[in-house]
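Two proteins follow. First one:
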Amino acid sequence: MLDKFLDYLLTEQRYSPHTIASYHRDLQDFTHFHFEKEAQCNIISAEKIHIRNFIFHCGEIGLSKRTINRKLSAFRSFYNFLLKINEIESSPVENLKSLKVFSEKQIPYSEEEMENLQKLWTIEEVPMLEILILETLYQTGMRKAELCNLLLKNVDFANSKLKIIGKGNKERIVPISKELNSSLKKFLNYRKPASSEIENFFINKKGKKMNEKFVYRVVNKYLSLVTLKKKKNPHSLRHSFATHLLENGAKIQEVKKLMGHASLVSTQVYTDANIEQLKKVFNKAHPRAKLKKDIL
C-alpha cells in the first residue's frame, strides 16, 4: 500500500522527489515505532492515539516542530489517500493540529559580504564547480535541490537563461548574467559525466550527479570565511538574492516570478516576452549585473 501511495504522489500529485523521499522516511519511522509499541507493522489500522504517541515521541527525542509538522503532513496525505481508495472509513489524523511554529527572521547577507565572497577566488585557488555553486545560487535564487536537478538541456547559453524545475514540477525561467553564462560554458567543457545517461548539468569529480549535502558543505565552507552570521546555507543565498533585488528597486511581483513562489501563479512557464522583462529587472537590480552595462 505504501508503494501505491508513493506512486500516487509522483504521478497524480506531482510531488517533488525530495518531498516523496521525506514522506517515505516519515511513514517508515512511524511503522517502526508502531511495531515496537503495538507489535503491529500495519499502520493502515493505526488510531489517533497511536499518532499522538508517535508525535510525543518525536518531541522527546528532540525533533524540531517543523520536522514534526512535516511528519503530520505526510500522515494526512497518506490517510487521505486511503480514504480516497476506500481503504479506511476515517482518518486517524483528522482534527490533529500542527504544532505552532514561530518563524525565525531571515537575515540576508549584505552586498559587501557577497562581494567579499566573490573576491575569494581572485586571491586563492577555488575549484570551478564550487565557484559555480555559490554564484549560481546567488544569481538565480535557486533552491539547492533545484541546483542539483538542473538539466543540461535546460541551460540556454544562446539566450542566457535557465529553465528551473521547482516544487511540484513547476517550471520557471530565470535569466543569468553574461559572466555566469560564460562560466557555465567553461564548466560544460570541463565536466566529464561517468555515463551518457547523466542528464544533470552539475556533476561531481566522479562524473555523477551532485548531491545536496555537497552543496550545503560548499556554501557553509566559503560563507564562513566572509560572514559572522549564524546561518550559512544555500537557502540564505536564496533569501539574499530576493532581498538584494528588492532593495535595488525590483518589483515584488517580478521577484516572486524569479523565486518560483507557488502563491503567485499556478503555471510558471514563461513566454519570451516575459523573459525580456525579467532580464531588464535582473540587469537593473541585481548587484552582479550592475557592475556592467547591459550584460544580457
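Second one, unrelated to the first:
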Amino acid sequence: MTTQFGFTSYTISQFESWIASVSIARTIKFVQQHHTWIPNYSHFNGSNHFARQRAMKKHHVSVNGWTDIGQHFTIFPDGLILTGRPLNRTPACIYGNNRYAICIENLGDFDVGKDSMNSAQRDSIIRVTAALLKRFSMIRKDDSGIVYHHWFDLNTGARTNGAGNTKSCPGTGFFGGNDVGDFNANFLPKVLGALGGTTPSPAPAPTPLPGVTKYVAVDADFLNIRTGPKSSFPLISEHGPAEDGSILRVYDEDSNWYKVSKTKQHWVYGRYTYDVTLGRINTDGTNCRMGPGTGYPVIAVYNTGDQVFVHETDGSWSRVGSDIWIHSSLID
C-alpha cells in the first residue's frame, strides 16, 4: 500500500481487506463499470500508476470543469487499484445516474480489436466489484448492483440498455461485450462466483437496513462528519464530507446529531438534513419526469424493484431526487 498525490494504491488482497472495514455515510446502490479509453495500455509502463491517475485528475478538473477526479477507483493493467474521488462524494461518470453510485474506471481501451485485457486486471475487476457488492449490500432488480455506461442515454440519463448510444464504455470487448445480454452471460456469473455463487435476495417490501431508524437527505453543499455528537469533536476526513442530496442512514440520535455509521462513531448535525422515505418501484418502465405531472419531459426510466427515496410529495406525485418526479401510485 502506497500513497502519493493524494491517491492510495492497493493490491487486490489489500483492497478486499480495506473495503470490508470502510464506513461511509452516503447510501450506495450500484457500481458503475467504465473503461478509460484514453489513457490505454500504450500509456502504461508498469510503474506510472500515480502519474496516470494524477493526469486524469488534472484533465477532469481543468478540461471537464469537475471539482475532482471523476472516479472512486482506477484498476490498472497489472491489477493494482488506486483510490480517486472520496467515497462520500458523488462520482462524475454517468449523467443523471451518479448519486447512489461507486464508479470504477478500468484503464484501457476494451473495444473489440483494441487492448487485450491482462489476466491480473481481469481478476481485480471481478474481485473489486464483488467486494463492493458485499460491503454495501447493493441490490437491483437483477440482484447484481452493476451497471455499464453504455446502457444510459448520454443526454437524458434514461436507461436505454444501449439503444442509440454511441458511447461503448466499458467497451464492446469488455468481458465478452457491453450489452445487457453479454453482461448476464459473461461478467455477472464471474462476479457471483467471486461471491461464492450467491447474491443477496431483494426484500419483498422496502425495508430499512438492520439498525437503521430512518433515512435523511443532506441539505447543505457539504456536511461535515465528526467523531462525536458535538461540533467540538474532530472531523472525519478520510472519505470526505457528505454532499448536498446524499442519503444518509441514521442509527442513533443525540439531541440534533445523527449517528450515520452502524459500527463507528460517525456523526452529522441533523439540522442540515431532512427526512426521506424509502420506497420501491412497483412497475416496469416507470417514467421519471422533470416535474409533478405528465406534461413534464421524461428524464429517466425505473423498473420494478428499483429503490428510491421520496423527498416530498405534490398532489399525487413524489419527488425522488433533484427535479425527478414519479407518480406516487408507482411507488410502494
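SUMMARY FIELD: Residues 119-136 form the longest helix (18 residues). The two ends are 45 Å apart (CA to CA).
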